[in-house]
C-alpha cells in the first residue's frame, strides 16, 4: 500500500493540496483562454484528480529501482517510459471526457477548450510526474535513515543490556559468600594470610566496579583482573586449582571489551575445577593470528563427576557482547573434548575500539 494511504490525515492533506493545485491550474488556463473559470474547473478537476491516480503508482516503480543500486540509464529509461504511458492514458481519458461534456453541456466547445490548453496541461502533468518521483525517492531516503537510526538504537540497547548482565555476573552474591567464608577460615588458621587475601578481594572489587563503567580495557588489564580472581579462588581450592598463562607479548596492549574474560573463567571454575574431584589446570592463551586476536580458555571436565546446574548466561552474554560490539566481526567458539572444555575468542586485533568511559 502507498504510504499516503496509511493515515486518513495524509489522505485528507493530499486531496486538499491537490484541489488547491487544480483550482490554481484552472485559473491559469482561464487567464490564457477565453473560457470562464467555472468551465475550466468542470473540465480540469476530474482530469487532474485522474492524473493523481495515474502518478501515485509510480511509488512501486521507484521502490523497485533504488537509486543506490540502479544505473542512471535504467532509471531514466524506466521513468521516461512510465511518463509516456501516463501522458497517453491521461490524454485519451481527457478527450473521452471532453467528448462526453460536448453531449451534455452543449453551450461550450469542450474539445476546443481541451485543445487550446493541451500544451500548458502537458507541461504541468510532466512537472507533476517529476515532482512525485523526487518525493518518492525522498521518502525512501528518509525511511532508510530512520531504519538506520532504529538499528543503532537497538544496537545500543543490546550493548547496554549485555554490559548490565556482565556487571551482575561480576559481583555475584555467591562469589562474595564463598570469598567471605574462605576469609573466615584463613583468619582462624593463618591470620598472616588474611591481609593478603583481603587485598586480593579489594582489588578484584575495585576493578569490577571501575571497569563496569568503561567499555574497553587492554588485554593485560583483563588478565591482571583474572589473576586476582584466580588468586582468590586458589585459597578456596588449594592445590586442586592450577593455572597456566601463555600470552604473546605482542598482544598485551590490544584493546578488548572490559570484563569479557571473567564470565568464561568463572564458568571454568564452576563447571571445571569445582566438578572435578582432583581439580585441574585452567589454561589461558592469547596470540595474534593475522588480523585476529585469538584467546583460549580451557578447563578440565570430569565426565563422571557431579554436574552443577548453570543458567548459561555467561557464554550467551559474552557472545551477545561480541556480536554487538564488533558488528558480527568477532566470534566465540566452544570445543568439547574428552576431559576438557575450551572457549575460543576471535577478535579483530586491528579493530579500533576506543578506551572511553561511560559516565554514570
From TrEMBL:
One Gene Ontology cellular component: membrane
Classification of source organism: Bacteria, Pseudomonadati, Pseudomonadota, Gammaproteobacteria, SAR86 cluster
UniProt source species: SAR86 cluster bacterium
PANTHER family the record matches: SENSOR HISTIDINE KINASE YPDA
A Pfam family recorded for this sequence: His_kinase
Chain segments annotated as transmembrane: 41-61, 73-98, 118-140
Start and end residues of each Signal transduction histidine kinase internal region domain: 162-241
Keyword annotations of the record: Membrane, Transmembrane, Transmembrane helix
GO MF annotation: an example: phosphorelay sensor kinase activity
Keyword Lipoprotein assigned: no
Protein name (Swiss-Prot/TrEMBL): Signal transduction histidine kinase internal region domain-containing protein
